[in-house]
Amino acid sequence: MFKLKFIYHMNFRKIVAGILLFGGIIIISAFSSFDIDPLQHIIIQFNRWMVVHPQENVYLQLDKSYYATGNDIWFKAYVTAGSNHQLSGISGVLNVELIDDRDSVKQRLKLPIVSGLTWGDFSLPDTLNEGNYRIRAYTNWMRNAGEEYFFDKTITISNVITNQVLTEASYNYGNQNGTQQVNAHIKYTNVDGTVYASIPVTYQVQTGNKNIANGKGQTDTDGNLNINFINPSGVNGAERIITDIKLADKSSVKKILLVKATSANVDVQFFPEGGNLVSGNETKMAFKAVAANGLGTEIKGVVTDNENKQVATFNSNQLAMGVFNFKPESGKIYKAAITYVDGSVNIVSLPTAVNTGYSLTVDDTGNDNIEVKIIPGAEVESSTSTTEVISLIAQSRGTIYFAGKSQAGSKSFNVVIPKSKFPTGIIQFTLFNSSGEPLNERLVFIKNHDELKLNLKADKQEYTPRQKVKIELNTKNKNDQPVVGSFSVAVTNESIVPADENESSIFSGLLLTADIRGYIEKPGYYFAHDDEKTNADLDALMLTQGYHRFEWKQVLEDDIKTVAYSPEKSLQISGHLKNLFGKPVVNGKVTLFTANQSIFMIDTLTDSEGRFTFKNLVFKDSIRFLIQGRSAKDHKNLQVELDNLLQQRVRENKNAPDWQANAVDEISPFLKNSKAAYESGIRNGTINRSIALKEVVIKDKKMQAVKNSSNLNGPGNADQVIAPDALQGCADIADCLQGRINGVIFRNDTPFLMRNLSRPMQIILDGVYVDGVVLSSLNPNDIGSVEVLRSIQYTSIYGGKGGNGLLIITTKNGNEGYAYQRYAPGVITFIPKGYSKVREFYSPKYDDPKTNSKIPDLRSTIYWKPNIITDKEGNASFEFFNADTKGNYRVVVEGIDSDGNLGRQVYRYKID
């Protein structure tokens, strides 16, 4: 017999408010007795934890999935919180970053969040290298959960301006004398498919920042080049081949090719349902096969026992996962003979079965209910204990939806729960013993079919180039009631930008990847269709993918630790006011002001620790502020020290398997169109070229540091001097310096000498030692020079602080001002990161006779609008004009209503 206790879902804010009001009484009564009910204790602790750690998620809709230099990336962000994905009121600031495949941040945006929504764009300069990039988005509050739960999407960016060469690479792997050998086969062609035959090529192979091979070669008559190298580390990581090909016109084109794997190894793992393989209990055994490139590879196999008796067979799905049933016997050992796609066979051991513990099985194949079974092992079944009580809890995104416990001494039970009691998304079932320790865990994905019904209707089905298109949008909820919601729309030419039906969406972004740690291959596949096979594949994913939003051990601890990152409600500037001896100045007056265009001034008083904070600020990026501190008696000889909010570190990309090794070649129609659009823009003056089309050789010359440099060797006496003109077009100084300093690499914006990666270089900014994180707050336009001291000739004068090298950064002076400088006691001036400028998508109006019809319209993104709001009848409309290119046009609308229900619809029309 099983006691049931349902906990019904409530509004997220009401839950938090309610717990805050009477949570203290519950906690006191709970800990006043040692015989507290274990289930009650778990619920109380869970609610306490979620009050301190409410979950926040973000999803970005992009206008398309790949881009070219000269394009813009348009996006809208949906920031949600709680189990029903209601638009979040936790945070008011969103960080969005464009990151390259070397984990270097190329651009950073800071955007205001209003009612859980914001939007913005990245402009891609023609100086960007082609390759795989990431768009990462997060709030400061989300940093507490970890970057695994940030929005993180891989995109492809092609440089169509300097590229006259396309590459296609394939790899073969071997093993000789215990070392891994890689053979790279590279084919060189132009955009039209003509091969580059008998062309000289130089190359180097890199792993991390280390060259492991280099050489010269020549393409054959078919444009092919073979490169062989040894992987010294034997790891399955991404490496790069950098080739320089000399063309007939004497120009040189550099190509960077990603080596996604350096072996043919396949990792196969088995996952018993619930986590335990218990002897004598029928069990679902899930499995997953992952190749060295991080993607799934299909397998099939046979399971045998130690008597070589066949007990099960299995075949993976197209994503290399699957499930089979089998009943392990006590004392037996099981192995799987696995056959790979190339016909080779490998033997892998299955987890060892145990006699104790429980099996937790869940059947969610029914239309209306979930059936949960708890089955004890033989030792538990034979136990004479009459006091053991086990508890079962089901939660989703911080809300408990089911809680129940067994009667004392009960050994097994099953329970049927209506699916309607749960929200759509991932449900975590956890089984606990009498001591409140978790025993088993099972993830289940519930589809309640509560998505919004979006209907798109165009005034025509076929159009002509440059003709106006008007589309009406109608939205209803699952009960066919009209809803007010916020939506974004992207229109692209599908003939130029081919669609991937398995692409990520607002459903996969908020319901799946936002709650799962680790890489998920083709997350959009699980929402493209709602049929038996797709749902079975989704369940296989739940059985093989872990949920780590929190650890139950942390939740059940009495001392719930405070969070490291507070929610950013708005922009703020904070710091300390101290006297010359470093002691806090209490009740000091701190004034913040700027005089860029109009004078702005605000003041505040310091607290008992000398801290000051200016909250609720709204200012755009690159605004220079001045802060002045005075004591209560108007003393001026004080120190103003600002808080530095550490930038989020950039770690290894969990979605690296999505990188495209032959990115340019797979989007040839898009590449040709983008190149034509760029050249047309240059001819017509609508685009400014930043770089020359042919290689330019720059001769070195002696660079001079600015005269007020604090370099103890004297201004300009350094191993290398970086001039201001080399620091343009970058997100920050660390980005500008990456790759420009000999013998120096940057890790998370911190410089290291390549000869000593264990300790960072010292950074001196205008004579003051600062941390590496300061680099991300400096505006490149404010830098006068950067001097690099590497050799003992220049570092010895700094004693022990010079052992790992130094960067001497000097800001501009005179009328140009300082980036971060004390120019009077108690006064500093600085440029904090403000809100990024948000542009409006330009959509030409061809019914205006003033529109220049002579300029070709070759846009790949035809229309973008991030702020479509439906009225109380659920209606909205939008209109735009087609481009010149013919083909199938694709309209994608995504959005959310005020109750957190999600919607997505795709509509197509044709242009002849």
UniProtKB/TrEMBL annotation:
Keywords: Membrane, Receptor, Transmembrane, Transmembrane helix. Residues 728-805 form the TonB-dependent receptor plug domain. Gene3D superfamilies: 2.60.40.1930, TonB-dependent receptor, plug domain. This is TonB-dependent receptor-like protein. The keyword 4Fe-4S does not apply. Signal peptide: none annotated. It holds the Pfam family Plug. The chain crosses the membrane at residues 12-34.
